[in-house]
Write a structure and sequence with these properties.
The structure holds two protein chains of two kinds. By secondary structure, chain A is α/β, with parallel strands linked by helices. Helix content of chain A is 34%, strand content 20%. In chain A, helix 8 crosses helix 9. Chain B is elongated and about 110 Å long. Classes of the chains: A alpha/beta, B mainly alpha.
């Protein structure tokens, strides 16, 4: 299902350099394109700038230099109205869900519809219920964000993100704080959304299981060199990428043939021993 | 008796024997016995002494550890070893970790490895340098000023959109906040205003009673309440009650990325979150002030009535003293103060950091900023009203 590079990319990033204030850049010279209907993974170690890249892609942060094209429009060179129009074509699921806490799940999903559609209240409620049903939350529609679990909050956040049938979905660390089963279910949901709605999905994550389960292509951000380390099919990267990226990718215990073990240390020192991933 | 040991009973860790082999240039330390954090940490004085006592010609190469005498150890020994190692680094001597037993060595290596890696990654500025700190502070002040101006601009633009009917917010929110900052505030405002009126009456009576001019206490209460006390008391209450609540509400939305979620949807958070709050408080403040004025008069009456002023006299004297200027000078101020209090609360909320600690700080600083703005504003109004003779 990988998008063919002959198609026009929905996101085009050229020579992007990101930095906070006057600090040293956190990432420089990023070049990549994301094509329609692909699931694109942005991966890398903790604190390497994955989430910052996501904030740049959705226009919440300005790049130090370089250009980001969303649907062929330069995100940082268009007027606020144009930017808002672009934003209605994307949906974002935040790490913690970021549901509006003063509203029920149903109202959360209804708000984008209220602001950007011509539906009346009853129609909006119907559409919102349908979106909640898609993510398996129709029974929790009248609950408040404080009353639901972390996994449900992420699902509800996805329901809100797909409220306006966006062309691109951004997921910020979808697996963070979830148990392996809930994480697996979220991966399945991700694939279902892509296959059923034809949405391009950009995922920021470091969960290897998810990367291999859903990723068509992956961009590896290397915090050591502060630039893109590798780009391609994650299954191929496992064989062809530079050594340290292969190492990062091989830590997934579920992979056939990847029997890497952390050096064992006998826990006789009172220190927590490094957790071995099985 | 309760498990506490007296100070005199507490054993001190004994000095660590250290010696120097001058022919090979080797320093040797021999930790002994039981090492425990509860006994305190050992210093490297003996090692330094061995180093200093060696003949000047000695070429120091390595420091060896002889831990054969250690019977029991915990972090205290490792801390001592780390001190020795940092001493070695200073003097350019090799610390021979191989001479340590394996388990102690691993701990020491882990800790000393991270100690060397701890070089600052951001710039080389010395943070204790006075110029560095001045510069840091100045850029901070400039940054804050920039943020305030920026937010002021955004709110003014949002109000511009509001008056042109283009602002995107929910009318329901305005009603909700009107209830929250208007009706729900009545009990506390009643209490404070009534007591303020009583206090004014007592203060006025203290002097005027001597001249037998009790009736003028009524004038004093009326003018003071309507011109100053009503609006100031109401503003301060709203600042602590509503301004800081606004800061906490918006700040916690900031912390959980709810504001980013609005922004990405193309909804301007200043219009959606700030505008309804500011409209509600700006509308409610004059009404609350008027209410406070009346309650203050009642409070004053409750005091002067015990001094022989009848209700008819009170009413007559109040009507005689009051005019529209007194009334409006208070009400005009209340509109501005309502705007300022709401602005301060929303500003602190919107610029809050992304942690739960930052939410608390935002609420506190919103109250401080709000009260400061009210007092400064009141000063400016006093001067202006004096000039135009209002």
């Amino acid at each position: 299902m990988t998008g063919t590079p002959t198609e026009k990319p929905v996101i085009d990033v050229r020579e992007l350099t990101m930095a906070y204030g006057f600090d040293e850049p956190i990432m420089r010279d990023l070049n990549f394109s994301i094509f329609p209907k692909e699931i694109f993974i942005i991966m890398g170690g903790s604190g390497c700038g994955k989430s910052s890249l996501l904030r740049h892609l959705i226009g919440l942060q300005q790049p130090r230099s370089g250009e980001i094209f969303l649907f062929g429009k330069n995100l940082n060179r268009c007027t606020e109205d144009e930017q808002n129009a672009l934003r209605q074509r994307i949906g974002v699921m935040y790490q913690g869900g970021a549901l509006w806490s003063s509203m029920t799940l149903l109202e959360n999903v209804m708000l984008p519809l209220e602001e950007f559609s011509k539906l009346n209240t009853r129609e909006r409620r119907e559409v919102a219920r349908y979106k909640l049903a898609l993510v398996g939350l129709e029974d929790a529609a009248d609950k408040y964000p404080a009353e639901i679990s972390g996994g449900m909050a992420k699902r509800a956040s996805i329901a809100r993100a797909i409220a306006l049938d966006p062309e691109i979905l951004f997921f910020d660390e979808p697996g963070a704080g979830l148990d392996p089963i809930a994480s697996k279910e979220l991966d399945d949901l991700t694939l279902n959304i892509r296959d059923a709605l034809g949405t391009t999905i950009v995922i920021v994550t470091h969960e290897l299981d998810s990367i291999f389960a859903v990723g068509d292509r992956a961009l590896f951000l290397d915090s050591a060199t502060k630039t893109a380390g590798a780009l391609g099919d994650p299954r191929e990267l496992r064989e062809t990428a530079p050594a340290d990226i292969r190492y990062f990718l091989s830590r997934a215990g579920t992979l056939p043939g990847a029997k890497h073990q952390a050096p064992s240390i006998k826990p006789n020192t009172g220190l927590p021993s490094p957790v071995t991933v099985h | 008796m309760f498990g506490f040991r007296k100070k005199s009973e507490r054993r001190k860790i004994s000095a660590v024997p250290a010696e120097c082999d001058e022919t090979t240039g080797t320093l040797i330390v021999r930790p002994q016995g039981k090492w425990s954090i509860s006994l305190g940490l050992a210093d490297t004085k003996t090692l330094q002494k061995a180093y200093a006592d060696a003949s000047p010609k000695t070429q120091f190469r390595t420091l060896r550890f002889d831990c054969s005498g250690v019977t029991e150890y915990d972090s205290a020994l490792v801390c001592y070893l780390l001190r020795c190692i940092s001493f070695c680094r200073e003097k350019n001597i090799d610390a021979d970790l191989e001479s340590l037993p394996a388990d102690i060595r691993r701990l020491t290596e882990l800790a000393s490895g991270s100690a060397t890696a701890g070089t600052p990654t951001r710039g080389n500025a010395d943070e204790s340098d006075i110029f560095y700190r001045i510069g840091e502070r100045v850029t901070q002040i400039a940054e804050n000023a920039r943020k305030q101006l920026n937010f002021l601009g955004e709110t003014v633009a949002a109000f511009g959109n509001f008056f042109r009917g283009k602002a995107r917010y929910r009318g329901r929110d305005v009603l909700y906040f009107i209830q929250g900052c208007g009706i729900d505030a009545l009990p506390i405002i009643s209490l404070i205003s009534f007591i303020t009126g009583m206090i004014l009456a007592y203060i006025g009576a203290m002097q005027l009673e001597r001249f037998g001019a009790i009736i003028y206490v009524v004038s004093l209460i009326a003018i003071a309440m309507y011109r100053e006390m009503g609006v100031i008391m109401t503003s301060v209450i709203m600042c602590g009650r509503t301004g800081s609540a606004f800061a906490a509400q918006i700040g916690s939305m900031q912390a959980s990325e709810e504001i980013s979620a609005l922004r990405v949807l193309g909804i301007n958070p200043v219009e959606y979150l700030v505008l309804p709050r500011m409209i509600a408080l700006t509308l409610m403040m004059p009404l609350l002030t008027l209410y406070s004025d009346i309650l203050g008069l009642l409070g004053g009456f409750s005091v002067v009535s015990t001094m022989g002023v009848t209700p008819e006299q009170f009413w007559h004297q109040t009507v005689l003293t009051m005019n529209l200027e007194h009334l409006f000078s208070g009400l005009i101020k209340s509109v501005f103060f309502g705007w300022l209090v709401a602005w301060a609360g929303c500003y602190r909320g919107m610029t809050a950091g992304k942690s739960s600690l930052a939410v608390g700080e935002a609420a506190t600083s919103a109250a401080v900023l709000g009260i400061t703005l009210i007092v400064i504003g009141d000063g400016i109004f006093a001067v202006v009203f004096n000039i135009i003779g209002f």
